[in-house]
Amino acid sequence: MKAPVPRLLRILLTWLAKGVAAFAALAIALVAGLLLVMWWEHQTRITLPTPSGPFAVGRTSYAWTNESEADDLALSPGSKKELLVWVWYPAAPSPKNVPAEYLPSLWRAAVAKQEGMLMRSFFKHDPALVQTHSVSGAALSSEQRSFSIRKPILNSGSCPIQRIGRGCWIAMRAG
Question: 136 or 155, which is more confident?
Answer without folding.
Answer: 136
